[in-house]
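Subject: sequence -> structure tokens, single chain

Hey, anyone have a minute? Need the predicted structure for the following. Not urgent.
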Amino acid sequence: MEIVQEVLSSEDRAHNLPEETKCKPLMLWAKGILQEDSSIGEEAEIKTVCGRMLRGIITEENPRFVHDFGDYVPEIMYIGPQAKSILWGDDNE
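Reply:
Had a minute. Here:
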């Protein structure tokens, strides 16, 4: 299960943060094994892989990883050959 928990309210956040960050609460998302019968949207306790017990609102059952490295950046394609050219000369492109 995945839970979400408010760690700091917007009023308790550091004053030197950018305004668009400071006005939002600091949230924690954690995955673990559900310790009690609960449904999505309800508050429940989970046990994480490292043994921490956390309480929060259940957001997802059996969550999957959905991150990536973003869109392709064509300029990166030239970094390797350019570095080789700088380090070892043009004949090693």
